[in-house]
Design goal:
The chain is an alpha/beta fold. The chain has helices at about 45-65, 85-110, 125-135, 150-155, 160-165; strands spanning about 40, 65-75, 115-120, 140-145, 170-175. The chain has a single domain, classed as Rossmann fold (3-Layer(aba) Sandwich).
């Protein structure tokens, strides 16, 4: 035993009849497995989003999980000076272009044995990400943040912040200036 008045922890000596500390719960020998089967990765084709994908791929590999790469377009607002334009065809082309870019990204950055879905949505990004997380039954969202502060944060808001607040699952946020992830 430590002498009284000396700093430090508490030492408890147990005799042969006292096999456990009163009130202490035994440590479980086998914790339930942490199970990730579906990982959602919102992509905006920025360097930040690329970094989030760098984190997602090793997670998917380790847990034998499926990835869903999601791009959310906010729609197009036309100025009257541009004249008549078929908005449906413009949106269709934009969605096809985004889907093509996602497919290329999946081919180049995700290992062949990891299943990948690509999905393009149009609407408010945070709402769409949360909605897809529910539909996809995501176990984890891995996304980036640009780290805007001050007026930029007030002006642009934070998609990541809103996703964290409303997501149906945990969210891993990767910062733009984060150290490199080593697999």
């Amino acid at each position: 035993m430590k002498p009284s008045g000396s700093p430090g922890g508490v030492l408890v000596e147990l005799g042969p009849k006292e096999q456990k500390i009163p009130g202490a719960e035994p440590h479980p020998s086998a914790l339930p497995a942490f199970n990730l089967k579906r990982i959602l990765v919102p992509i905006d084709f920025s360097a930040c989003a690329s970094k989030a994908l760098q984190y997602a791929v090793p997670f998917a590999k380790q847990f034998d999980a499926r990835l869903c790469l999601l791009y959310v377009g906010q729609g197009y607002y036309l100025a009257p000076e541009l004249g008549p334009l078929d908005l449906t065809s413009v949106e269709t082309r934009a969605r096809a272009d985004a889907a093509s870019k996602l497919a290329t990204l999946a081919t180049e950055k995700v290992a062949e044995h990891i299943p990948v879905d690509v999905l393009v949505r149009t609407g408010p990004p945070a709402l769409e990400i949360v909605g897809v997380a529910k539909e996809f039954r995501a176990d984890l969202i891995i996304m980036s943040t640009h780290g805007y502060t001050g007026l930029k944060h007030v002006w642009f808001g934070s998609v990541t912040e809103n996703v964290v607040r409303h997501a149906p699952c945990p969210v891993l946020v990767v910062r733009e200036q984060e150290h490199e992830f080593l697999a």
